[in-house]
Amino acid sequence: xxxxxxxxxxxxxxxxxxxxxxxxxxxxxxxxxxxxxxxxxxxxxxxxxxxxxxxxxxxxxxxxxxxxxxxxxxxxxxxxxxxxxxxxxxxxxxxxxxxxxxxxxxxxxxxxxxxxxxxxxxxxxxxxxxxxxxxxxxxxxxxxxxxxxxxxxxxxxxxxxxxxxxxxxxxxxxxxxxxxxxxxxxxxxxxxxxxxxxxxxxxxxx
Length: 206
Known about the structure:
Four Helix Bundle (Hemerythrin (Met), subunit A); 61% helix
């Protein structure tokens, strides 16, 4: 199990890796297909939600009557079971792509710097409010590392790079996926971990 320090380091490493990745992409590629439904620009915008959502949960007042989410896996099981959740995710990606059209790389760098300071200033045990319930910030941060790592892989594949991830960030994601064995295809994960699949299907967590 990763420690609180591991998760914070993993966040910073995956954040820096994503910033570097976006900065390396030729702007002429922004309109290319990123996934089955998004362009590269929209995929970047969706991945930026990993940062934006941190600002949102830290700013939202705590509702002590809301559901208490026990960990990152509980968060994903709850959030991804909401009817129409994937439609909302797709719409926000398209809207975000339009907002960052002028300078995706600059927007990513500025946002990552700002949110990185918030992460360092927030205790892991502090409860934060997501719309699906309350969760300890350290556990919520695991979900943000997961989003950064998996969607960075999506982006790397889209632009023809060899998929890679910072070691500790990948370890945090791997641990989280094991906890979600009831949601993902366990055989697909096992094959990916043992080198029997070129890449893990990264749409399982959207």
